[in-house]
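Structure (tokenized):
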């Protein structure tokens, strides 16, 4: 399935390729949609209930959660493209996502987007939020705290990827901080 591009093994950023922390996930968006929204309800769909099921599943929080996971992939791909065109404030030698224990919170956590320059010891730490509204201050605090989960770097570039542009007030508040970056989906695609 890996050779067909249907599934992929992912490991936490910074882990060895032989890490036992690796997980397999569906990599093809069409199959991901099928197994998330269609396969569990095939018999009901075949009985003519497809429209009702689609309406319930594809509205609200379930759809946002699904789109949010896809958005994380889009953000990571954007970082890779920006690295290839040398448009980031660091030269990227490694990238991915990270998950593991957060000792301060005593729970598992993740970092949606991580890229690093292992030569100069710079890191890019990104949070992806696919929501209509977010508490921007809370997200920034969380993003700063997550930098501490990746020790050993001398500089951290923090990126907030969002569905909608952050407020002008927030942009002004962080205008003095050259390590804080805001990227909306529209900005990724030049809108």
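Design, position by position:
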């Amino acid at each position: 399935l890996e050779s067909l591009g249907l599934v992929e093994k992912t490991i936490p950023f910074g882990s060895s390729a032989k890490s036992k922390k690796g997980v397999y996930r569906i990599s093809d968006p069409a199959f991901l949609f099928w197994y998330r929204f269609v396969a569990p309800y095939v018999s009901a769909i075949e009985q003519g209930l497809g429209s009702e099921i689609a309406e319930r599943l594809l509205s609200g929080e379930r759809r946002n959660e699904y789109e949010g996971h896809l958005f994380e992939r889009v953000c990571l791909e954007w970082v890779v493209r920006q690295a290839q065109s040398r448009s980031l404030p660091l030269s990227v030698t490694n990238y991915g996502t990270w998950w593991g224990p957060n000792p301060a919170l005593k729970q598992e956590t993740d970092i949606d987007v991580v890229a690093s320059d292992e030569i100069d010891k710079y890191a890019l730490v990104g949070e992806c939020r696919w929501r209509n509204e977010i508490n921007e201050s809370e997200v920034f605090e969380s993003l700063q705290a997550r930098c501490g989960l990746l020790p050993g770097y001398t500089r951290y570039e923090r990126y907030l990827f969002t569905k909608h542009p952050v407020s002008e007030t927030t942009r002004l508040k962080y205008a003095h901080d050259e390590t804080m970056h805001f990227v909306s989906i529209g900005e990724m695609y030049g809108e």
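Reviewer-requested clarification: Residues 167 and 173 are 10 Å apart (CA to CA). The two ends are 36 Å apart (CA to CA).
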